[in-house]
Amino acid sequence: MHFSTAKLAMIVMSLVSVLVSANQPSNESQTSDNNIWRQAPALPIALQEVYPAVFKERIVVGGGFTPSKEPSFFGLGPTDSVYLLNPPTGRWQKKPSLPEARHHLGMVSNRHYVYGIGGFTGNKGDAWQIQSSVFRLDGTFREWRKGPSLPIPLAESVYANVGKHIHVIGGKTISKKTGKHVDSDAHFVLVNNAYWRKAKPATIVRNSAASAVIGDKIYVIGGRVAGADNVNVSDVEVYDTKKDTWTLVAPLPIASGGLSASVLDDKIIVSGGEVFGPDNNWRAGRAFKQVWSYDPSKDTWESLPDMPTPRHGHGMVTLNNTLYIIGGAAKVGPQETLSSVLAIETQSQ
């Protein structure tokens, strides 16, 4: 099934819009004619800073920040909880917990396993310890086991599956010189579920970007550059796994970090994100509710109707022609963490 971007927008505009979240006042669920997202089953708990994956026709969400009685970061703490959604049942199920709590845990799958890669651990006062360890869960969904560790610690990277290979690109790592967090252009590929090899580094050093895969190509979109102001970027570059090349394409219309992306009908749909205020003040920043569609055949971006509320740190996956936006937060940083899930699907014409 193939639609033009304009056709996709028409389909999108025909859908009914609903947003339900236990974390928002009731008036937040009221929507206008321009809000085209329907309600999907809400997460059992509020979660932000998640990277969900599709595995065995299920949506898997693990780790992340959640409101906690023993918070490590402004009322939030990392969780080891894992939830699985089988869309036809309309119900999230709790699955085996991760070996340890993680936030910003990168989840990605191939035909054999769903992986939880890197991310952060740590208690209050030291909640941002970047990890290199990797967990994986097979199709029996019984137990997480250790997978091959990353060559270096990485968090806030992008994670992609092309064919049978898992790619991890960019993000934050630890400087060997200073011991501090720095952005990375690293690119590693998991080969045969057994070992990591280096691949051609990204041309842009950044963290908190989004990614999507079309065919043999990985698109890395937006993100931010760590520093005093955590400056957002709008650059989009594409890694061709066959040619081992990076190419710049049309930039995202807005510079955004903490955004998310997935593919629907051969278009890349990008949603939300956030921008910090001056002097890295997240309280003075704002989250975005814009949604964009990228057509790789034309190298053009087109705006789609906004989400009902802003979101950053949310997950985004596509399963059976339905795109899901999962969790996140309605305000910048550790504020208004969400359990709600939005969905949109193409329809046969």
UniProtKB/TrEMBL annotation:
Residues 1-22 form the signal peptide. InterPro entries: Gal_Oxase/kelch_b-propeller (IPR011043), Kelch-typ_b-propeller (IPR015915), Kelch_1 (IPR006652), Kelch_domain_containing_8 (IPR051746). It comes from the Bacteria. Keywords: Kelch repeat, Repeat, Signal. This is Galactose oxidase. It comes from Pseudoalteromonas luteoviolacea NCIMB 1942.
